[in-house]
Amino acid sequence: MAAPPSDLKISQQARELHFRSIVVDTHVDTTQRLLEAGFDLGERHANGSVDIPRLRDGGISAVFFAIWVPGTVTGREAVKRALAQIEAVRREVSSHPDDLILARSAEEIRHARADGRIAILIGIEGGHMIDCNLDVLRGFASRGAAYMTLTHMRNTEWADASTDPPRHNGLSPLGKEVIAEMNRLGMIVDVSHVSDKAVLDVLETSEAAVFASHSSCRALCDSPRNLPDDLIRAIAAKGGLVHINFHVGFLSQEFIDFESAHPEIEREVEVEAKRRAGENGARELVEWDRIVREFAGEGKLPRVKWTLIIDHLRRAADIAGIDHVGFGSDFDGACMPFGMEDAAKFPRLTEALLREGLGESDIQKILGGNLLRLMEDVEAAAHRGKGSG
Ligand SMILES: [Zn+2]
Hints:
alpha/beta, TIM Barrel, three-stranded parallel beta sheet, six-stranded parallel beta sheet, about 400 residues, single chain, 16 helices, globular, binds zinc ion
């Protein structure tokens, strides 16, 4: 695919490498925006981070849209809303047939790419949406869900979250059944958001490699949402991946230290985001993203630069190896650092990796090659499972 014109200042080598590579972002929350009345992914928007023009500018070949309802919504209501969001993604894809195509496998991502279209994949962000029912899980898979994040911020009935007091000491027996069924379905198990003990239980239970779709390094920023070095190592040892999250509160220790010392600023951001979003709840995340950068510009919050993404990537790669890392931005669901405000800035990552001295083939692994390999491994494990059982 030829690179579109851009004012992004990067080297010719970086542009050329980036736009001939398969580039994957394993987590965006743009699905919430599809629920806004009148929102069209085909238009270039002045706010938020993702739309078709900016995915094109960013040379992104495949992107996972998260299906998400808050952990406070459970039972049949959560299932209903999740299904409605899956349909919203599918509708949006079919209304832009020249640009987008729904994909579920590595092969489909490659086809989309050869066809000049962006592959849209679906990830379920939170196991509460299956309502403890494996039939619901199978239904999600049949509607195209490629991965499921086992929890969101709260524990589910069968798995502990990293941001809730433990209730199951990791995974419950039902949690282990969920993993086995995901393996059988060829769905990738996503350990972002789950507790450290639950990650260990998953690694012991899963027949297939797993990944963290949007988590950074706890050694660099001490958030429970980030992964400690030993878990990064353990995920990689099983053939899995860690995809670095761009959220300022997961990248910057300075940022979270400042926030915990100044809870009043955090509250001010929250109130302002609510005010600007008005009745439109889906809009709140997008406003939050913008306000945090505005406040940083006014000196009310620390200024976080996008280059921290590369520091986290390097850390994870040093521990896990180049074959086990990638990017999962959290666009439209978190606060982006300066210089990585939207999907159009993605080529900067390639430029930075070249400057770090990485070879072109290693950079291509990080951008998407590793994820394609993981998908193929998960698919192969599903076939093996069917063969033996
Ligand atoms: Zn998340």
